[in-house]
Design a protein that fits this description.
Helices cover about 75% and strands about 0% of the residues. By secondary structure, it is mainly α. It has three domains: about 190 residues, Up-down Bundle (Growth Hormone, Chain: A); about 55 residues; about 210 residues, MFS general substrate transporter like domains (Growth Hormone, Chain: A). The two termini are about 35 Å apart. The N terminus is likely disordered. GO terms for molecular function: transmembrane transporter activity. It is found in: Cell membrane. Its main location: membrane.
């Protein structure tokens, strides 16, 4: 689904820009790490309270994102609203989450990461309360937008974890746990949301969210340490504005394009043009301001554009397959398995999410042994294999084959590739600007999700054998993501990351 601290103030600072893959930089860093003792691991008495606080925050955000899914029909009835109106409130939440992800991690670098995360949870709690007492859809829409402030919870938690866990192997394992919990509770929380809405009305779902956000406020304040970047100049709000406009327009365009035959294509074109103009304005602002959100030097580096491109293409290739095509195939009474709507999640989305939850920590452990990039590519190859299997399953789908494919993709994408893409956003970040890359990476995740539905469903609807065509398109896009992943620099080859700076101390 997204930023700088002013280190490029003069030519002297420019001369210290890192070089990737160059013999001198890579060799120097490797020599340092080989001669410097590895930082000690945190004891359980230190990392258990920390993990409790961070997981509570992640859990709170995930509930805001997915707990409402089974309650949407109840919301329509209780608010006398249409499906489109309720759908708009969901779109508003995810769009707001994407936009806040662009700059809040960087703002945390400057004013305090714990302060920002506590503020995010507190504001999200207020949004939950506003949604819970909403007398109509308009107020509900405002409440959901306010809840979107929690959008960058996961990247901010991973940055905060990075500050307190200096041992690389321990960090990789804990990162896998945090990130897998973010995706892994999807399905379980939806079941809880359905039970609450069915027994106590949809408002009880929002009250539950509000309570958990309040617990997260207390836990984060009590069990995490405050941290900032080394240099803390003023926030580049002049850069935030055009970037937010650009991403907002592009996301809205993709959402509109996803309607296919019912889409307003003139609006899509206008939004894409405004988005392109916003990105152009952002680039030019960043070249001129003293303390840019993202220094142009960073934007040109492979750690930025190669990672963001890989994330974008990975999400585009797989997201709508697992969250659209496969569930639709399972419910299709003619071409599919004819599974009921009340059962399909148990066969597809829930096992997919739980497989990711179980395998995420294993992927983190693998990254500590073999490297994030290698494990990412292993996950991407596995995801391609999973989609190829899915293409054959389309010919004769049943509950067991769909269950197998869902678990397979849950391991390879949700449990490996997704974890590593999030992790690389952290471990590739420069020590002086740790917020920009995780924030922009979150934006790439969100863009990819929207683009996935627009592209894969368009392809699926353009051919007689639509399910086959959509999944073949997903395979092609994932192969492009795999090719781009080879351009992502290895974290150990960069001399300005947190790990490199710690090694020099």
């Amino acid at each position: 689904m997204a930023l700088s601290g002013g280190f490029l103030r003069n030519a002297k600072q420019l001369s210290h820009a890192p070089h990737y893959g160059a013999q001198d930089s890579s060799t120097t860093f490797k020599a340092m790490t080989s001669t410097t003792s590895e930082p000690p691991k945190l004891q359980p008495s230190s990392y258990i309270p920390l993990m409790f606080a961070l997981l509570t925050a992640v859990f709170s955000f995930q509930l805001n994102a997915s707990m409402l899914s089974p309650a949407l029909a109840t919301m329509e009835d209780e608010l006398s609203a249409t499906t489109a109106q309720i759908g708009l409130t969901q779109t508003a939440f995810f769009t707001a989450a994407a936009l806040f992800s662009l700059f809040l991690p960087r703002w945390g670098d400057l004013i305090g990461r714990r302060k920002v995360l506590v503020g995010m949870m507190a504001v999200a709690a207020l949004g939950c309360v506003a949604s819970a007492v909403a007398p109509n859809v308009a107020v509900l829409l405002i409440g959901r937008i306010i809840q979107g402030v929690a959008g960058p919870t996961v990247p901010l938690c991973l940055i905060m974890l990075r500050q307190q866990v200096l041992n690389e192997k321990q960090y990789a394992l804990l990162l896998g746990i945090v990130t897998s919990v973010n995706g892994g509770i999807a399905g379980v929380d939806a079941l809880a949301g359905g039970w609450l809405a069915g027994n106590f009305g949809y408002r009880s779902v929002f009250w539950t969210m509000a309570v958990l956000c309040a617990i997260a406020v207390v836990a984060v304040q009590a069990f995490t340490k405050e941290s900032t970047a080394t240099e803390t100049p003023r926030m580049d709000w002049a850069g935030v504005l055009p970037l937010a406009v650009a991403l907002g327009c592009v996301l809205t365009a993709f959402n509109e394009a996803g309607k296919l035959a019912e889409a307003n294509w003139f609006l899509v074109i206008i939004l894409l043009l405004i988005g392109a103009a916003g990105f152009w304005a952002f680039w030019n602002v960043e070249k001129k301001v003293a303390d840019p959100l993202v220094p142009v030097a960073y934007l040109k580096q492979r750690r930025t554009w190669a990672l963001l491109s890989t994330t974008l293409l990975t999400m585009t290739g797989v997201f709508a397959v697992m969250n659209g095509l496969i569930p639709n195939l399972g419910q299709d009474p003619d071409a599919g398995a004819g599974i009921s709507a009340s059962t399909i999640s148990w066969v597809t989305l829930t096992p997919y999410a739980l497989a990711g939850l179980v395998f995420g920590p294993i992927a983190g452990w693998m990254a500590s042994k073999m490297g994030y990039k290698y494990v990412l590519q292993t996950g991407l190859i596995g995801t391609v294999v999973g989609l190829i299997i899915s293409i054959f399953v389309v010919g004769a789908p049943n509950a067991w084959t769909l269950l197998f494919v869902s678990i397979f993709l849950g391991v390879t994408y949700a449990g490996i590739a997704n974890i590593m893409l999030n992790g690389l956003g952290i471990v590739l970040s420069p020590a002086d600007n740790q917020g920009y890359l995780p924030g922009m990476n979150a934006g790439a995740f969100n863009l990819g999700a929207g683009l996935s539905f627009a592209v894969l469903f368009a392809v699926s609807g353009s051919f007689e054998h639509g399910y086959h065509a959509g999944m073949i398109a997903g395979v092609i896009i994932l192969l492009a993501a795999l090719a781009l992943s080879f351009l992502i620099p290895r974290p150990e080859s960069i001399d300005d990351t947190v790990a490199a700076v710690n090694a020099r101390k």
